[in-house]
Amino acid sequence: MSTCVDDITRGHELYLRHLLLLGQAAPLALKAVIETEVRKRGESLAQLIGKKKDTFNVNYRKQFLQLFQDDEVKTNTDSWDTSLLCVVTFVLFKSCLTSTALQAVTCVTDQRKDLDSYAHSASLNFKTFETKWVPLNSAMLELIKYIDDEAKFECKRMIHSFKSESINVNIELINKMKQINDVNLHLKMAIQDKVVPNIHGETGSCDQNESVELQKDNPVFTEKLQNTYVYISESAILTCKLNVSEKAVKWLRDGKPVEETDTLMFLTKKCTHWLAISRAKLIDSGNYACICGNTSTTAFLKVSEKPLKITVDLHVATVDADVRESMDIVLICEVNLRTNKAVWRHNGQVIRTCNRHVCSVQDLEHKLTIRNAKFEDEGDYTVDFGNATSSAKLTIKGNLSLLHKKQLMEHMFRNWIRGALGLKYLKIGLEAFSDIAVWNHHSEFLTRLSSIGNRCTRCTTEILLPSHKPEHCPKKANCLCSKKPHKRLPCPNGGFCSTFYDNIFFDHRFFCPLLTNTDIHKWGSDPWSVATCYISTTGYKDKRSAKKIDCAGLLSLFINNTFFERSLGSVEINGETDLFKQARDARNDILHSANYELSEGELSDYIDLFRGVLEIKTITGETPLTCQRGVKNAMENLNELQKYQIDIHDSEDLQKQIKGLREHAMNELAEKVDEAEKQNRIKLQHLEEQLKKKEKELQLMRDFRSSTLLKCAQTEKVPFELKLHIRVVGSTGLTVAEGRQRIFESMKEYVASYMNSQEQPIKSIDQSVYCLLGYITNIKDCKIADVFNVESSVDIKVYCFTCKAIEEFLKLINGNEFQKETIELRKRLETLERIKACDVLASCSSASLESTRTRLHDKVASFIPVLWLTSLHCS
What we know:
Elements: H1 2-41, H2 45-51, H3 53-59, H4 61-67, E1 68-69, E2 72-73, H5 82-93, H6 99-115, H7 126-143, H8 149-164, H9 171-180, H10 183-192, H11 208-217, E3 221-223, E4 228-231, E5 236-242, E6 250-253, E7 256-257, E8 264-269, E9 272-277, E10 286-292, E11 295-304, E12 310-317, E13 329-335, E14 343-346, E15 349-350, E16 357-362, E17 365-370, E18 379-384, E19 389-394, H12 402-448, H13 496-506, H14 527-531, H15 551-560, H16 562-568, H17 579-591, H18 600-614, H19 631-643, H20 651-714, E20 720-730, H21 733-757, H22 767-777, E21 782-789, E22 794-800, H23 803-814, H24 816-832, E23 837-844, H25 846-860, H26 866-869
Parallel strand pairs: 4-11
Antiparallel strand pairs: 1-2, 3-5, 5-9, 6-7, 6-10, 8-9, 10-11, 12-13, 13-17, 14-15, 14-18, 16-17, 18-19, 20-22, 20-23, 21-22
């Protein structure tokens, strides 16, 4: 029995040794590596981490949450655990560390992860311990090769102590560890219990009195100064701690004594010493040192200007929903610091202040005012503050007659015609290669199936069973093998159609061939009956040449058919970012344009893209499409199209082109629209049936619970309390505050006079407010208790004494009449009070709704249907 206890204790001891090596020695080495590499780069650790923010967010989410809090980087490395130190070292310095150093970091990372699997038992057997210790020891020695001598010495001392010196194994400590099952907490418990005495401050060879005297004569900083980064006007505190108290220290900055001022003070409490700066200035930056006798600790304080951030994104400030020509338009952006260094751009071009474009700054708000807006003012607007930018898209609707607008926008319409012609030339350039590839692909299939046959007239897509096993299918949802497989049969002609389907399916990039585009009986004889399976939209059945396929269909072949990619050579096609996918997206943007308009810049980008497709290059620089028939002419036409505008003189021809292009754009959607309408009719019918059923159930439940609810509500001494928010939305904070105050005064007067006397007050300040409150007071068993003016809204406290009153109140504030009155209130604010509010909104407090719902549920839970409970809401 004792032998068994000895074995268990030995396993716990080995676990603690390995835990301390990973939890104390490894962080010491990793922190020293990080500090060394940071010094080489001349940037702070916070700056280096900030540059890799996206990498941490995407690949190391847990560590990202530890590093970034409230838009600031947490760089106190003493608080970082081993895992976080490894991740930061790897992300920041992967490209500059030696391969052996990277292997060392990987070794520490892997062993730290593996240690979690032993936490439940807090034990390691000897063989496992030796297997782990040897590579970890080598990794640690590799990491400390190039760090400073002090850290190197301390790390080596820890490695030696954790391997060789005696260790205190407390059975109570082990039992606590088994209950917690957390490696990080195990480490804190081991340090607190001082399982390795010489590492954690206890004396070894001398007695306690001698140790105390030795410490007094030779004080040591047990907590050293840390590099600190603050912004101007923020507080900064440098902290260090000695192993003895009542020792005087000296503070230096850049080698010169630091003197106390109104904003800088020295503080001491027992062993701890602080240098505190209440409002930091740029001149406070420097290297600080705290000196006590022959020992010292140093760190640097960096005071920098607070980075400018955008607090309110760029947006169009307008009362009306639409922005129209001839209006004065204001674009507004707010920042957190005062600055005059704002650069405004329109479609990438810097905007200069002139009579029509006025750039202004008011406190933290930056404005661009566009007077007498024209259609040419449409586009992307950006305000640039250096490291911070914000953008908004401006769309202007016309006020002129269609004839005038047509004359104004004719240039952009002709650009759209040029874009459509560019699609035509792109299609011409792709036709020859597509025809060849389709024939070659079909020949490859027939060669594979030569031993089976080449024709079958009995199979259909409704009954065909693929030849592959369902468990080997890469995407069952799109495959025939998962669609009623018990009703399907393999092809009776030696499996010809089944195997042919497999070839089509596995050569599709996304494993979703569109079989409505094909005739399965023609697979053995017609190459294009096979090719149309790779086109993503319907309407291509019986198309037998590239000439009869539109541009979208040909681009789908390049994107979806992996044989096309193989035929092009080493050209990457991924169906997401490649040139063919970009060209198909461009084609959709052009043909689905609502106004048939393109700017000159958009047109140029599209034509460059179409030429890029025809000139696509392999890894070796070859251009496999340029040698095909028709490509040379297509390239010349695209070049001409980009250089010169086209003229359309005959208005009848113009109308024909518009009609033809529009029909071309809409025909491909016709089948989808029909199918969508059919599905919608089915769903609507189903929903109507469900609604009728629910209405019947609801009526039955209402009848059943009406007496119970009424009785419960009537005996309720405390009324149900609901809060209604009336919010004012304006272009500025001043507008919001004025509007809110104006509404509050009127509502307060209403509550004070009308609610007590039941008569209209003599002085009518704002009739709309009285209408809104009158709606509420007209509800039976509903009373307005009070009105509050809060920071974001005017809050109305409403008491409902019955469930019926709650229901009527919620219907009211969701109803059209109540919402229309809020619109009227906004208009009155603007006309009578000259307060330019964008909108006045009314909504019920979600907190009061939840409280009411809870009370109702607690009172009569067995009688209230769920459907009625979910109706307690306000849109």
